[in-house]
Amino acid sequence: MAGAAGCFIPRGARAATKILMPDAAANRRFSVLYQGNKIGSHTIKYSAETGETLVETKISLLVKAGIFTVFSFRHRSAETWRAGRLVSLRSSTYEHDTTLIVEGTATPEGFRVDSRGGPFIAPAATLTSNSLWTPAVLEQDFVVDAQHGGVIGVSARKVGVEDVIVAGRQIHAMRYSFITPYLAGAIWYSQEDLWVRGEFERDGAKIQYELDT
Length: 213
What we know:
This protein is mostly beta strands. The protein has one domain. It contains no helices and 15 strands. The strands form two sheets. Strands 8-7-6-5-4-3-2-1-15-14-13-12-11 form a 13-stranded antiparallel β-sheet, with no helix packed on it. Strands 9-10 form a two-stranded antiparallel sheet. It is globular and about 45 Å long. The two termini are 30 Å apart.
């Protein structure tokens, strides 16, 4: 996920799925489970104002063994989108006792990302690693890493439609498998292209995402 100062990636926006900005009806709140126990939450909230869409992401994970903290992770980000294009990003991530700040803004040259790794220019039609609200994110070659800065590669494939239980009811959902340098697993989208379930592996640990609302 490390950025490269001053580099430009000319590819990355090859999505065939049209990127439609969500509205408040698509707000997500997932419980994050590890070995059947809830260890945190992942929420996505949308709001629209003056022709722009604000997408706020919050992730909070905590694993303890008795009084000892085994793993702690917190992520907050705010993305501003206009006419289907990312125009600004600001995020803060706490992991391994380190806080990382990532900022980005649209420029005539592309989307500029500034982080601890230095500046990076991504394609103007970029998505971020937080863009799991659209299956189009899995059709990218690269996405902006909203947690560490720079860009990361994405490799994904469509597995097929499965019946899954979401918020107590059974629905048909399209399953995708994917891998990035830091995360791998499976993710499900409803027939309305809404994110409804996830199973991820990170640092050797498998976690499940169950949709609350």
